[in-house]
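User: Show me an example of a complex going from sequences to structure tokens.

Assistant: Sure. Here are the input components:
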Amino acid sequence: MSVFQLLNGMTFAALLFIVASGFTLIFGLLRIVNLAHGALYLLGGYIGLAVAQATGIYLLSGLAAMGGIALAGLVLDQTLLRWVKGYELRQVLLTLGVALVINDLTLVIWGGDTFSVPVPPELQGAASILGVTYPKFRLFVLAVGVATFLALWLMLNKTRLGALIRAGVDDAEMVEASGINIQRVFLLTFMLGAALAGLGGWLGGAFLTLYPSADSEILVFSMAVVIIGGRGSLVGAAVGSVLIGMLNTFGQVWFPELAYFVIFGPMAVLLAFRPLGLFGRAA
Amino acid sequence: MTSLAPTVVTTNKSGLRSALAWVGSAAILFVLIALPFVLKSYHLGIATQILIFAILAMSVDVLAGFAGRTPLCHGAIFGTATYFVIYGVNTWGLPLPVAMMIGVAAATAVAAVFALLAVRVSGVYFLLLTLALGLVIWGICLRWSQVTGGENGLRGDLRTGALADPATFYALVLVISLCAFFAMRRFVNSPFGLTLRGIRDSESRMASMGYNVTLHVFLAFTISGFFAGVAGAIYAVFNNFVSPSAVALAQSVQGLLMAIVGGIGTLVGSFVGAAVIIILEQFVSAYTERWQMVLGIVFILIMLFAPEGIVGKSRTLWHRRK
């Protein structure tokens, strides 16, 4: 295992974590499997691309991607999902319909070509780390991934909102009964999860590039992460991301054409022993 | 999602109604048989496609409507058979019937593996897991280009001899789809099928009464995969071409949507659902390339307003009129 491949695995894991943490937050608290998460990622990437092209300010494009997708999450939750509250399968299938619509919309607007979100000069080129020369941008993604983990961990464990979310994951009814407006917590969590998809799309837009089927690809990776890590678990998402990131990197080196097998084989074995994932708890 | 069980009412009170139902079924059958004599070959092709996808939708319905587990991998199982049939004929030089049998067997095997992994979970987890498993097949078909042809797919030349005639092919598919329908109806009304419905309604109760829930779900999944494979094998002959889009998520989604539009747990609704979706697709594609968006919107509208589907809804209305 060379340092180079280790870094490849870790940087990909960081991107996966950003996307999957949003997915698992929504899944854990709202019990919604948001199949539009991949489409939101793609849309976030394209928004980032458009803003970066229009203004040339990199940081602004990131904020626009996050804000835009959080807004999309707000609209999705308030206009569509609220009508099917409490019906798990109808919610999931509804988000699937939304995913199809968003994916096709991006195809209409941006076409089928491959795009890459422009990166500022400071993040271009390579840096020397651990004795190898490595692309700076990927290290930046790794740093953002770690920062996201820390921020989410602090938010969940040290703030009032985090306490409410944790309590809601365990027993939403009880939280509501103690006089908390859980619906507002739900909405905030949904927007936060969506914003993370937008952030992922913005970073992924330069890391993996943007193209029409990128949304299903990132969605399947995020689902694998959440299936391995367990519903609603932040640590689970981190462990799952590292596992999947590493397996994907080494799978592509050793069995390039069957890389998917290398990822999902271990996932399947794990499920046979722990159907709810490593850190999952029964609902 | 798990709507009313499709128990056919056969009490004395409803003698007239069951007679009506019989007359209705006979009329529909007559129309289906008469189609080749009225339709142009292009439209007959669409009718054939509807029948093929009705088999796929019914296979989804067996699992979703009767075992209470909604799968999102049946497109992948379906497409596995399609790939095997075309590959078998092209590369291995097999005769078509043998290739089709191998295709169905491969699809059933894939379904059995999926079932082994998915039997322990239910509800949203089941959906999520089958979705991920289906995407694995898609990933393999996309990336393993030496065998699958990658994005370009595989072209076959299977519609030769008598099969080249649209009317003959339609008749053949009609017979197979009716056989599949009666086989699946028999299956869901058998003691085994009744146990499945029990599991759908209350898993813990069935388990405490001594039923082997895991085994029942496993078998139901595998059998439903068999029928998805049958549909996929016929589709290979129908389409003469297979690409990753045959195993993509959209295919699984479409199969499930057809079952839902028709009415989950009705079986016969799958024919209605397949007809509605495919005719809509033909209609929309004539005017715009945005079929995927329309499909997504249909999905959203159905989930919001009529989750019990067309046949389910009309059954509810029908029974209310008593």
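The lines above are the inputs; the final block is the predicted structure for all two components together. Chain A is about 75% helix and 5% strand.
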